Amino acid sequence: MTEPRTAVLVPAAGRGERLGPGAPKALRLLGGVPMLVHAVRALAASRAVDLVVVAAPEGDVDEVSTMLANQVDSAEVTIVSGGDTRQGSVARALIALPDDVDVVLVHDAARPLVPAELVSAVVAAVRGGHSAVVPGLAVVDTMKRIDEADDVADTIDRSTLRAIQTPQGFTRAVLQQAHALADDDATDDAGLVERLGLSVHVIPGHEEAFKVTRPFDILVAEAVLARRRAAGAV
Question: Where are any strands of DSSP class E within 98-232?
């Protein structure tokens, strides 16, 4: 009997309009290398990951397959055509999973510098008994709620708030159930699980697992990548 395996689903079909005109967000260059390549390499660097399934932009499946060929040697990589929404892309990647996968992570391609140790920590938490796990960082800014007139309605206690990152980890059964019952799009998969009334466990996140959304984020990512290269870490 084969050992159960862990897979990571990477929805990478988004256009990324906030980054400005150009290629799909996952294919934008970071240090001369597409963000998607950085992300897949980072995920595969975790020894806890056996398979990475990328949901590529429709029409770019062959390009992404060629781009990722021979880029990763520590994990199996499969490419599928993504959907019109993030949720649709994750659902298509779920269908592509082989039967021996029992733990599934979902990771944003726009978080290309996620440390391998964070990936491993999420897997360990799921295999340790939590059916849904997300990494989160404490919120450092003062948080205020505003009303319809953009006036401050109240100040929120930030000690109970966390900025949630990816990868998010789940037992396969829970993630499949969450997607099967979803009736609209969601910004993250943990939100779908919450709708089932199930607990989502939060573990410490990592500052370098930030999301590249705007041009300024590219500058920050380039700086992190340059520091890693100077230290011989990549």
Answer: 101-106, 132-138, 143-146, 152-156, 162-164, 168-171, 201-204
